[in-house]
Amino acid sequence: MHDVTYRDRAAYLPFADALVVADLHVGRAEASNVEFPLGEEADLGERLAALVDAFDPAEVVFAGDLLHRFDGATVRAAEGVSDLVAVCRERGARPVVVRGNHDTALETAWDGDVHGEYALTDDPRTVVCHGHVAPEADASLYVVGHVHPAITIESVRRPCYLYGEGVHRGADVLVLPAFTRLAAGVPVEGLSGEKSGSPLVTDVDAFRPVVYDEDAGEVLSFPPLGEFRRML
């Protein structure tokens, strides 16, 4: 298992000095005509700033679905993306953008490079992609989003990570929860490979759920779902 630090729906990879977040879905509140209690833009920006301050990464990788709307960014959503980029640059971190399935018109909000997949390191070979299509590059670790995993424990649904060892072409796969708190999440206890929507998550039972407990400030790692489902 690769060295990963879990925090607030994000992952810091110390061997790459990179923070990875996925599925921010900027503009979701506006598109849904729903207002998040703290405001979507402020919530995303403040939480990202706290993570960058905590880890001081060289890079922040947005692993797809930076935008919510398929047809392009509104003025407000484009400003939200600009604010997130500014959070990174003001703290000395380079923003890297990977395209997700929602990001069909990403260029309406971002004028930099957009990657289909992004290689963080060669040793270990680590590739970040959104996860909606199979990556072309070989790796020993793939870091993806797209699935929006969550787990229900004691009647409380919590965002979770999924970590599978050797599950895709012999490589490990780390699935991140959606960074936006407007996404309810897909309960992994009822998830199957057909329903995951990702070619990297075909044997869900082989993945180990990982939960970051914000209140306790600790990481809870559970057995693979194939063993753990009956306990839920």
Overview of this protein structure:
Residues 19-131 form the Calcineurin-like phosphoesterase domain. It comes from Halogeometricum salsisoli. With 232 residues, the chain is α/β, with parallel strands linked by helices. The chain has one domain: Purple Acid Phosphatase, chain A, domain 2 (4-Layer Sandwich), CATH 3.60.21. It is 19% helix and 31% strand. It has helices at residues 28-32, 40-55, 75-90, 193-196, 225-228; strands spanning 5-7, 10-13, 18-21, 59-63, 94-98, 114-115, 117-122, 125-129, 141-144, 149-153, 156-159, 161-168, 171-175, 186-187, 207-213, 218-221. The strands form 3 sheets. The protein has a 7-stranded mixed sheet with strand order 7-8-9-13-12-15-16, with no helix packed on it. It has a 6-stranded mixed sheet with strand order 1-2-3-4-5-6. A hairpin with a 2-residue loop joins strand 10 (149-153) and strand 11 (156-159). Helix 2 packs parallel to helix 3 (75-90). The longest helix has 16 residues, at 40-55. The chain is globular and about 45 Å long. The model has no long low-confidence stretch (mean pLDDT 89).
